[in-house]
């Protein structure tokens, strides 16, 4: 079973007169890459959040956003009465000295002065944090379910392409005999073009031909490629998703296919190798999104 790296989870809940909206999104990435946008009050818990996300989601580009809307009647911003009164008395005295009228604009001016308004920072409520973590874990479970569903579609496509490569490999065999005759004929023609006037040692020619064809033998590559395909399909069925391992196996499959292409010397085999490469490219594209 494989999982996709793409997923989305969301949780909405209320606690302590606050409404929370938690959104979690994952995309494909070679490593775990976490971007967390959370209110300042929860910053001290960011390391805990990152560890939880990395342990559960394993790999991918992970975006977490926590929105908080306060439904309480109290505000964190308070008027500093002592400072405001001090400012007001000083301005009243200055106005009196200068003979200026006192009006409501004094208060407006005072509110813009330093320390007239103070902000009282909240302290982190551990019980509130437990509720947030419960919903974060629920969002991660939703992501995991999403990944499994997407993974099934990926697995079906990857499996079909892998089996196609294996089927195409078996189609090469009937053309191998013709390939040997083609190579032998081509070598004979090239010898004749050299105008050696029959001064060719046929036994030596046969020996060199056997040696040459032995170097062009495809059997070893065919056996390895089929083994790689079988191992790839077996790895797909593992209980744990293993995208990196599948990538390594696909690279080995690519090497064997390329070697078959370099030894082809026959149009039908070359055409088959091109089809194999096409299926392998589709597999590699899908593997980019496998966990």
UniProtKB/TrEMBL annotation:
Q: Which residues form the Endoribonuclease YicC-like C-terminal domain?
A: 175-290
Tagged with keyword Ribonucleoprotein: no
Outline the extent of the Endoribonuclease YicC-like N-terminal domain: 2-155
Q: Give the residues annotated as coiled coil.
A: none
Which superkingdom, per the lineage? Bacteria
Names of the cofactor(s): a divalent metal cation
Give an example GO molecular function: RNA endonuclease activity
Is Nucleotide-binding among the key words of this record? no
* Span of the signal peptide: none
Query: What are the protein's UniProt keywords?
Result: Endonuclease, Hydrolase, Nuclease
Q: Which NCBIfam families match?
A: YicC/YloC family endoribonuclease
Family the UniProt entry places it in: Belongs to the YicC/YloC family.
Looking up PANTHER family in the UniProt record yields:
UPF0701 PROTEIN YICC
**What protein does this entry describe?**
TIGR00255 family protein
Q: What is the lineage of its organism?
A: Bacteria, Pseudomonadati, Bacteroidota, Bacteroidia, Marinilabiliales
């Amino acid at each position: 079973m494989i999982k996709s790296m793409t997923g989305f989870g969301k949780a909405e809940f209320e606690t302590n007169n606050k409404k929370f909206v938690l959104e979690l999104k994952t995309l494909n990435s070679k490593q775990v890459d976490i971007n967390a946008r959370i209110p300042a009050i929860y910053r001290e818990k960011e390391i805990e959040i990152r560890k939880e996300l990395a342990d559960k989601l394993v790999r991918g580009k992970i975006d977490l956003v926590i929105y908080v809307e306060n439904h309480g009647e109290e505000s964190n911003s308070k008027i500093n009465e002592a400072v405001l009164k001090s400012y007001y008395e000083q301005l009243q005295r200055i106005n009196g000295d200068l003979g200026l009228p006192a009006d409501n604009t004094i208060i407006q001016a005072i509110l813009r002065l330093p320390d007239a308004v103070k902000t009282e920072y909240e302290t982190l409520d551990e019980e509130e944090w437990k509720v947030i973590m419960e919903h974060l874990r629920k969002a991660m479970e939703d992501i995991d379910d999403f990944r499994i569903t997407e993974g099934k579609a990926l697995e079906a496509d990857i499996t079909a392409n892998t089996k196609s490569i294996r089927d195409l490999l078996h189609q090469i065999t009937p053309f191998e005999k013709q390939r040997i005759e083609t190579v032998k004929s081509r070598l004979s023609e090239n010898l004749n073009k050299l105008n050696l006037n029959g001064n060719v040692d046929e036994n030596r020619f046969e020996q060199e031909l056997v040696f040459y064809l032995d170097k062009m033998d495809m059997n070893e590559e065919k056996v390895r490629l089929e083994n790689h395909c079988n191992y790839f399909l077996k790895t797909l069925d593992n209980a744990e998703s293993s995208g990196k391992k599948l990538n390594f196996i696909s690279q080995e499959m690519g090497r064997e296919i390329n070697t078959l292409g370099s030894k082809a010397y026959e149009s039908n085999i070359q055409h088959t190798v091109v089809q194999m490469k096409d299926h392998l490219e589709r597999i590699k594209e899908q593997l980019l999104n496998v966990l």
